[in-house]
Amino acid sequence: MTDTEKINLIRDSMPAVQNSVYLNAGSVGPLSTITHGALQQSSQQELTEGRASISGYLSFKKTTVRLRRAFAKLVKATPEEIALTHHTSDGMNIVAHGLNWQPGDEVITTDLEHPGGLFPLYILRQRQGVAVKVVEIPTDASPEEIVARFEAAITPRTRLLAFSHVAWNTSVRLPMEEIVAMGHRHYVLSLVDAAQAVGAVPLDLPAGGVDFYAMPGQKWLCGPESTGALYVRKDHLNLLSPTFVGYQSMDDRGIYDLSGNYMPAPDARRYEVATIYRPGIAAMVANLTWLDEAIGWEWIHARIARLAQYARQKLEQLAGVTVITPPGPHAGLLSFNLDDYDPARVMTKLAEDNIVLRFIGQPYSLRISTGFYNTEADIDKLIAALQNILAGDPEVLSHFG
Ligand SMILES: Cc1ncc(COP(=O)(O)O)c(C=O)c1O
What we know:
Layout: H1 3-12, H2 15-19, E1 21-22, H3 33-49, H4 54-75, E2 82-85, H5 88-98, E3 106-110, H6 115-128, E4 131-135, H7 143-153, E5 158-164, H8 176-185, E6 189-193, H9 205-208, E7 212-216, E8 228-232, H10 278-295, H11 297-316, E9 321-323, E10 333-338, H12 343-352, E11 355-356, E12 358-360, E13 365-369, H13 376-390
Parallel strand pairs: 1-11, 3-4, 3-5, 5-6, 6-7
Antiparallel strand pairs: 2-8, 7-8, 9-10, 10-13, 12-13
Helix pairs in contact: 3-10, 4-10, 5-6, 7-8, 11-13
Bound molecules: pyridoxal-5'-phosphate (PLP).
Residues 87-89, 114, 116-117, 164, 168, 193, 195-196, 216, 228 line the site of pyridoxal-5'-phosphate.
């Protein structure tokens, strides 16, 4: 099958990418008919069979096992290192609040973090007296300089580096493995926010020595909302205490007493809590199976990078456009600005042409996400629409909202 035939097939399964120029997986990816079909089927089963049948429960348990396996395969981990979560922020909170902090300990983060990764650290400061140090990452910093900036902030009190693999605002891809390795040389662990990376870039977390990796399902993986996973390196299970617990946190024998003891699951399931939305889990399994077996991760990652590069080239050729994202290895995010034009108003104008992207507050800019389902023609449509805007008066663009 040629690439064009493959892309056409993919696009046939994703109506939203046919009905618009869909450039915002960074917020939420488009659903496929496979994913939606599984969601519908599971929901229908809940309706007609009820939700309390033994067979329904057993089949749901199997589906959760399949989902942990699918996430594990994606990041080259073992299923025992995967906890199912509801989103990236869930994973960031589990790790931030699960370490044994002492007042005066330090966590180092960056000025590029999303509230989902940043606010859990603020709570640590408020409740535990942990110092939150923010390292500035200028957009033109080289990978070596980024690592050096983290290293310069480390002191004997530093316990954790918490940073995004790919920044949601400037779209820079941080040298994760190098940061993690440097941290380990100082006996400091790393918690990585994978919201803009998982599904967009190849991953081998064990090879990279990554300690904790918090992933969403609804963005680059194109899964339903309220799905996600947290990777916890096998040898860190005893280091990370669960904060929220419930019946799902126990091992399969369900052992607990009334003196304050329960037997936690032997693996990362100990960070899972209680009842979750079954159709979402079933749909995420179908979704990841489709991405892996029918399309292929290698192909997906290569295509995302190629399209991001294509978009970058085209944007750079446009007079009046400044690309914010530094050159170098990209994920699929790209941030830019139309000089003199208000990003929110440009976004509104593009929406009139059915071009879906978003503006970012800090730095105030526009951001696109090139997905594996996008085409060069999608990018060309965006470029043509931007050219149109650039030919007009910045003041005549309608206000956002
Ligand atoms: C870097 C980053 N972290 C966290 C989030 C929050 O994602 P989630 O809703 O999966 O917690 C986002 C996206 O909105 C993000 O871009």
